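May I ask for a protein sequence together with how it folds?
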Amino acid sequence: MVRKPKIVLLTLAVAAALAGCKNNETPTTDKTAAPPVATAPAELKLDESKLPAYNSFKLSDLDTSKDACSDFGDYVNEKWLAANEIPADRSSWGAFSILDERSVAVQHQLAEQAAAMKNPTGIEKIVGDFWASGMDVAKIDALGITPLKADLAAIDGLTDGAAIADYLRTSAAKGENVLFGFGPEADFKNSSMNMAYASQGGLGLPDTTYYTDAKKADKLKAYQAHVAKVLELSGVAAADAAKQAAEVVKFETRLAKASKSSVELSRDVSLFYNPVTVAEADKLTPNFSWNKFFEAQGIAAPEKFSLAIPSFHQEVSKALGDTDPSVWRAYLRFHTVDGASPYLSQDFVQENYAFYGKELNGQKEIKPRWKQVLGTIENEAGEAFGQMYVKVAFSPEAKAKMEVLVKNLAAALKDRIENLTWMSPETKAKAIAKWETFTPKIGYPDKWRDWSGLKTTHDDYLGNVRAADAFNYQWNLAKIGKPVDKTEWGMTPQMVNAYYNPLQNEIVFPAAILQPPFFDPNADDALNYGGIGAVIGHEMTHGYDDQGSRFGPTGNFENWWSPADTRNFSGLTGKLVNQFNAYKVGDQHVDGKLTLGENIADLGGLATAYDALQKATAGTPDPLVDGLSRDKRFFFNWATVWRTKYTPENAKVRLATDPHAPAQFRAMGAPSNLPTFAAAFECKAGSPMVRAGDKQVVIW
């Protein structure tokens, strides 16, 4: 299944996450001993023989015709990348996506078992209902557009701005807000309490630049054709659908011009925080009453809430007053149908894939139905599914070893902070105070969320999705004005990823990433520190990147830097921006500003992991595995983690919107700044992988 991402309210936690891109099929030929798995209850079983193999560093991967000191990524990964094609149902392929494929294969077995249970209850019933209803393609195809007829009739009845505003409020209350994000997040100034945030949204393309950049005009044209096709599939005559599509794109372009781009949002976290009273918000948006909005959501109007990106909301208000209701009807009809397309008949599913998968990302084939349905379960009831996942796929031994790694990385980071030469003692003390409050979370939540209020059935796929949307939305609304629950996670255990949340000063490592090549309890220290150790260091360093460093030890948004230290920091980060601006994919440069936070985290994380490895192995002989030194294997596994290839289309989307640099530059970018890398590979001064003098970047 390919679907547009739901409007995300506040992306602080996930924006700091590693580039774990969801990608699929074709098992690899690499064979690595699996880490031990947890003993599962009798009712859930895992057949390891049916899972894709791990992809880990091997000596035979190295392309000795190349020079490690020229392009380290090519030296480690080029042979593997040349020998492994991107599966047809994916738009990228590499270390993250191979583990994702393994996670999906585990989920496949569990979903089938849940659906086959007699009289299941709890999370097994939810998972089984989603699976059975989603796999009943014959019934879904027979229904066609019927499940949306009531929604479309309501939209057809909208005749003025007041009615449209009321529709936006009532649809939002069901978790179906197509226009903007709304929900809870920790108050920037009081991070122990949740407040309400309203964000921008309403666009069908990945970024505002798709509406304004002439270089992306082909994608805007294709999007307009997609809008027309979806409207036609929903019952609009072809000629009318084409006219309406032009109006929808014109309307979204208007919204895009009032919105912030991915670059702006990723590099200025303060844009999310604009606390106002309801009365102040109503003055900004006279045609959209926030007092009525809160009432429609069933929650008391707060003393203050964050009206993030006010220019966007002001433009929406203006549009409610000056835009013909027919344009609004076309816009709402399209987004309602487009958002539901993955759960409707195959003509809708195929059109959804044709644009979002094939046109935008270069995905050659649609995912098989079973993967589409598993994606739905992940989106709608992921943590419920996660309870089943960790019973069969995560061991206590793995968690215990991870705890040791986290402790060692934390100690190494403290040493690095204390030995900084560019930071004053006063600011260092505050950096250490923040270090002391880091909270690690490993594997899965200590307290599982209660799913007992979600009602699902075995025979209504879209109904189950909408029930989950409403359930999740109301669950989130209940947090507003309440203390933050620090046991909650922002990712599911089965997600191959990790993240740092500055508002809680926490680093989080889901179970699914704690596998080779990142982590293997049976592997030597060099591989684990070069893999998950660098990931741990990466997430910790996010607390001190250009945005994470704007939050203090308690998670509050505050300035704890001296003016001189701020200037020093900006000078250093500017050098890193310039380094990545020089990298190119084809004829397009990497955006060093967009990717700055992740590049800071890579640089600090890798350096910290190297220090931690030296401490952990001090006084022990180098095992020289396969004749390779410990230091070489450390850097080899770092590069292996970033073993990834993209379709040309997907690469373009990422360059425009992804705060992570393309993987090949992550493999080489950070090591090229480390003298320890040059020493390990005996690189000579002047080599491309040896940045020295003013070009060398050292931050944390």
